[in-house]
Structure formats: C-alpha cells, structure tokens
Amino acid sequence: ESWLTVKGNQDRALHEATDERLQRNPTLAFVVSEVGREGVEWCQALPATAELEDVLLCHGTPASDEGLLLEEVESGYPRLREPAKVREDLEAYASATLVLCGHTHLPRAVQLPGGPLVVNPGSVGLPAYDHDVPCFHRMESGSPHASYAIAERRGGGPWSVEHFRIPYPHEEAARRAGELGRPDWQKWIRTGFAR
Fold it and tell me: At CB < 8 A and 24+ separation, what contacts does 44-53 make?
C-alpha cells in the first residue's frame, strides 16, 4: 500500500549530509547508515507538499520544512500564532479544508476561523527537542508516548480529529540514543521535556 508522504527537514538533511557533518552529528550518521543509499534517495524524492482533494500536507509550512505553521517562538518557547498569520502561509491553498503539518512535534488541532482545520499529529519517537532556528527554543510535548492523530469527515461534513498517545518502549529508545552519543535525545525521549 502507498502512503502519501512529504519531506521534512530531517529527510532533507539526510540527502545534504557531508562527511564532515556526519562526523559531527552522530544521529544523522546513524540514520544514514541504517537507511542506506536507497533510503536516502527515497527521502530526497519526496515532495515538500502534497495535496489530495481538499487536504494539504506539509512538514513545517508549505514554503519551508523548518517553518512553524501553528506556533511562533517567544522567550524560548512556542505559543500559538495569530490565525491571520497562519492563513497568510496557506494563502495559495485556499481550497484546503484540512491541513496536516508537523515539524514542532506538538500534537494539536486548530480550527482557523472561516478556514481549514490545521492538525499536527505530534511525534513518534522525539517528543521534545531544542533548536536554534529561527532562534533558540524548546518544543516539549510533556509525554514520552508516541503521538498520532486520525482525521475523518463523514458525509461531506466538517473534519473531526482525534489525537492519541500510546506507550512504546521509549526507555529502550532513550538508552539507545545515549549509547549513540546523544544524551540530549536520551532525556527528551525519556521525558518529553527539553529542560
């Protein structure tokens, strides 16, 4: 079965990885070694956005896999953006009634007034992190559980969404991150916090 998939910033990083960057980033080196050349090429071939009828998929924003669609960073932490700013980012996709995005790893659903339902399903495997783009900030889901969402529409009506958090062997994943030289990821995976 084929799943509609879009490229995220980490998928792009796999393809852009240089030998020097692989030496400095043990996580990237591990992923490249695990997925192999074929996996890297598959990630590179993914589209940045995808549309299926009135559904839009993007990783960050339609214009950037590192953009923040629903949040903006203030004082090192995310807060919801004004709906008008989100709509500006979605202007070219006015017919979308459902927008599926990611990047922040924060599960949420935001109904834009007079516009689409925007859903971030959260993360399976990295429930918290810190990053320096656009400035230093922390994203924290507050739970080590895997997160996903199911959106459905019945009879042409409005979209509904359910978010789920399910346990998985996150302690094992955290231990492995530590073994691979990522004590930061170890903490993030174990706790869902980046402090």
Answer: 44/7, 44/11, 44/12, 44/14, 44/15, 46/5, 46/6, 46/7, 46/11, 47/6, 47/7, 48/6, 48/7, 49/6, 50/4, 50/5, 50/6, 51/93, 51/96, 52/4
